[in-house]
Amino acid sequence: MKKLKTTKVLTVVFMVVFTLVFTILFSRLIYIQASGEVDEVDLKKWADKQRTTSYSIPAERGKIYDRTGMVLADNRPSYRIYAIIDEEYSRNSEKTLHVKDPIKTANQLAPLLNLDTNWVASRLQEGIENEKFQVEFGPNGASISEQTKKEIEALELPGIYFSKHLQRYYPNGKFASHLIGFTQKQQDEEKEAEEETNVVGAMGIEKSMDTELRGKDGHISYQRDNYAAKLLDPEEVVKEPENGVGVYLTLDQKIQTFLEDAMSDVQEQYKPEKIVAVVMNPKTGEVLAMGNRPSFNPNSRENIGNWYNDVISYPFEPGSTMKIFTVAAAIDAGVYKGKETFQSGTYKFMDGARPVHDHNYGKGWGPITFNEGFRRSSNVAVSKLVWEKLGTDKFLDYLHRFDFEKKTGIDLAGEIKGKILYNWPAEKVTTSYGQGSTTTPMQLMKAATAIANDGKMLKPYVISKTVDSKTGKVVSEKESEVVGEPINAETAKQVRDLMESVVTAEDGTGQGYQLEDYSVAGKTGTAQIPDPDPNRSYLTGRENYIFSFLGMAPKENPELMMYVAVEKPELDATEVGSEPVSYIFKSVMENSLHYLNISPDMETKQVNVDSVKLPNYEGKSVQSVKQELAEQNSTVRVIGDGNRVAKTIPKAGEKVLPGSSILLLTDSDPVMPDLTAWSLREVLQLGQLLSLKVEHSGTGYTVKQSIAEGASVPEGSYLSIQLEPPNQPEQEKASEEGEEENKEQSSEAETEEG
User: Fold this and answer.
1) Which residues are catalytic?
2) In the list 206, 211, 313, 421, which could disulfide-bond 201, CB 3.0-4.6 Å?
3) What is the pLDDT of residue 5?
């Protein structure tokens, strides 16, 4: 009885507890159903969130163009491959939608991804064993081409899928790489768990215009089932992306190509540590070409030896190119008397200070004028101008007027400014000839716009405009900006005259920079390189310099201005440091001026009272005309094998000099002559005569032609020629001229120390 009674009590207790728990749970259920909340969590919103998938729609990065509309940075499709391995994905489908045979899939897929077959098979098998929904294949599967995608699709492998994304592409490869820059993936810290990345600009225009180029991503969201399939009513929400703007540069693809080719030639032949070059329109401040060596291909970005754009980020002691601005300051201040003489060689400007020496071991050239001192690149000349005539305080004022203490403000990321060292008397003097104080190439070019542009100094820029990627409507547009007037127009003209004499005079240091068809105003520079050994001031040896030239053409009204610097070239015993520099300058400037259809001015300058009007020879005998012109020492080129003259270049009535080249087109069908040893001017005349489109590379005289001798020449044909300088006698002359320049280069370490 006692045991039975105990059992009844326990039963009652159990029933009471059960009823209480059931009541609590049921009440909770009723509450949840009524309120739709659990622990202040809205169950409907939670369910919607669980059923809703959302992802961003990346905006297309804006393209980068040159000034003519040629694409320099583009986007091309790239694909990420992934494999779905969950067999549930195929449950309601007649086709197999997942990877059914990992071994077979690996055998066919691995070769196309350049992966090991066993690795791919293991990747698939481990995913299946770990009950994963899908797997990917590392870097080799993250960015595959359209062609590889098509080859994989042709295998019809179940469970293999692709996701598309756009990849930045640079169609010209190693072309203005430091200026254009490149993009790279950057981990998004907020989405690190999802392993999402952003593409950001890492250099050049890609970096400085990253926000504008990137645009704004859109997004899409919809409701789905457990297998990512959309529900019948997915409640889809789509926000379209805003694509990045298109960026047009001031860069000219043709001029940049001239520069790239010339720098590559010098890099291959002379193997310098650096080459820096920039071409500008001095009237506007537009940068038409900019290049560095070493360079890199932004598509692969392998072996990037230099992450900086040296044109704007490499301050160095400029050497004698600084004398341009020293003389400009003296002329503008009214203290320069070009015909006044001074004793060259050595100048002791104050007691206790190291004397200034001219570059020929301090021997000088005896008493010479200041004009001759500039032509010969005399350190003593500019030192006396600053110390005795202009005054160091006034000189510093002009350095500030030329903005040598400021960044240029060019629209590129990473600009660094040089530094004016002006604490001690020796530093004030040595700055006059480009030692101690430093500048970047772009700072020199900005200052030189005042010389080329009649005193007005312009801000350099590389971005011309931005446009809406869809409509093409201009979003923003740059205009030329005058940022100072450090000298007056008459001073600028006098400085250009002096710079021309550097190139044309027998005692000038820049004779090797003369162009065939255009006058040049320029200044050479041989900059010293500080020695890393603290016990020594500068490196020594004939190759351990930065050889440079700053020039503009045509001299009277410069249309182009260029700076070239070559650091530590490997020179043969007979070579001088100016040779690689002059090769780049002459090749780029001559070709670019012709490409821009700038009228040659050298021939115009030579026309004098002895010039005569060319008679009208049309219809006359070819033989008689040849004889008449030969008596005037003219060079006659006959085109065709007819007996009568149909046309001449120059045209009848135009002025010609005795000895000029005359082209005669006969009354027969024209055929291509042998152009060997023809000058560029003569080939361009031929193009005008026969209505040809002429393209050319190099400088000098024709050595190759694209249309064979004797071939027929239809109007509108393309003629491509290659020019090379003659071997004799110019090379012998250059060798003789180089002996003195070589002395300058090998001794400046001693003579320019301050």
Assistant:
1) 320
2) 206
3) 66
